[in-house]
Amino acid sequence: KWFRLGNVVHAIQATEQSIHATDLVPRLCLTLANLNRVIYFICDTILWVRSVGLTSGINKEKWRTRAAHHYCFSLLLSLVRDLYEISLQMKRVTRDRAKKEKSASQDSLGYSVADEETEWLQSFLLLLFRSLKQHPPLLLDTVKNLCDILNPLDQLGIYKSNPGIIGLGGLVSSIAGMITVAYPQMKLKTR
């Protein structure tokens, strides 16, 4: 129960900090995500109160669904913030790359229409890879949020997964979380 109280306090503190972010998109996404986390932890505490027998008048399924909704909303908002940060990072990488490559473009030999149809995807994936490689905290936060969202999506019946996939996602998310605790520089900063 002390971990639950600590999580609520941490979520409230994170909400207070996110309100002061200078960039509008992270400020909005993180503030709403943290508020949803606070509500999730309140729902979780209500479920805990029922599970230890302090009260029996609590509808377990209703509160479990509420908790899953708020947890899912929190993660979706965190992912929107991650996507926003990824787009900013991709713009930076593109700008830096353009500065380096002021020389004339090289025409490739053997160019075909098939190359044109797949070229945009290859370019996008390469740019995404370079962007995340240059910003490991963003990669770590995105992977953690993607792995975490598997559980509430399954609980809400939005995207059913098998327990092994959900467990693997939880393991990867836990490892990512431990990395940010062990190496604070790997935590995604709020501007």
UniProtKB/TrEMBL annotation:
UniProt-annotated location(s): Peroxisome membrane
GO biological process, one term: peroxisome fission
InterPro entries: PEX11
Keywords: Membrane, Peroxisome, Peroxisome biogenesis, Transmembrane, Transmembrane helix
UniProt keyword annotation of Transmembrane helix present: yes
The keyword Transmembrane belongs to this UniProt entry's keyword annotation: yes
Cellular component annotations (GO), alphabetically ordered: peroxisomal membrane
Superkingdom classification of source: Eukaryota
Transmembrane segments: 164-183
Protein name, UniProt field: Peroxisomal membrane protein 11A
Source organism of the structure: Macaca mulatta (Rhesus macaque)
